[in-house]
Amino acid sequence: VTQIIGKCDSITITEHYQVGSILYLDQVMEAVYGNDHRTEAMTRMQLCIDYVEIIDFLHSWNPNKTYVMCDTYSLEVAVGQFLLTDKLRLVLNDVDYMAVIDNLRKKKITCGKREQFDLMAPEMLKPSQNKPWTIRNNFYYDEKIEIWKIPNMCNYFLGKENSMMMRQLSEIHSRCKNIDPRKRPSAREVLHMYKNINFSKCN
Question: What is the CA angle 184-187-191, rounded to 5?
Fold first, then answer.
């Protein structure tokens, strides 16, 4: 998470990252690595690991509550929630819209009214496009909506030139996209798979 250096009245001062936004990740990677594609691929995979580590932390650090980012419903918006440090590591920067699952009461969440976007899990969508949204016909879900997003986010970090690595991830990513949220893996399970990637197959 972005490091807080200090506060002055209502102003919060955070650590400055020169690289900053990951919206221009490809340009950053080209500038840093040039033709060193193997090292670049390892750094890109580390960003996938960083991302899932953040998700796993939000899901598991409090045994009584599970935190879910509600404002990552599209790839463009989700990418904007993170920053790239000077060491090319991923940090979470925007946490102003967190939903909290009460694990003790088994109470699920809703992220409010949403139209269809590219990172929205099926259980988040309106059952009928002809039926207007109201709080009464709203529906609820859990942290598995974030597991659905993992393949999209990781593919963004990997870029278009890492097809061999994507093939290694295809099985776990397919499970993340299971239409039944109960059959999707946990963030920790995805993290375990990511950390066991064989880079010798990515030449």
Answer: 115
pLDDT digits (tens, 9 = 90+) for 16-75: 456 678 888 999 999 999 999 889 999 999 999 999 999 999 999 998 999 999 888 889
Only one residue has tokens 């972005």, namely: 2
Q: Which domains does the chain have, with CATH numbers?
A: 20-202 (1.10.510.10)
Summarize pLDDT for 113-163 with one digit per residue, the tens: 566 678 889 888 766 555 555 544 457 889 999 999 999 999 999 998 787
Quote the CA–CA distance of 163 and 96 in Å, as a whole number.
35
Q: How far apart are CA 69 and CA 96, in angstroms?
A: 9
**Total residues belonging to the chain:** 203
Angle at 47 between CA 45 and CA 52, to 5 degrees: 100
Is residue 2 within 8 Å of 83, Cβ to Cβ?
A: yes
Residue burial 104-133, b: 16+ Cβ < 10 Å; e: rest: eeeebbebeeeeeeebbbebbebeeeeeee
Assess contact for 46 and 89: CB atoms under 8 A.
yes
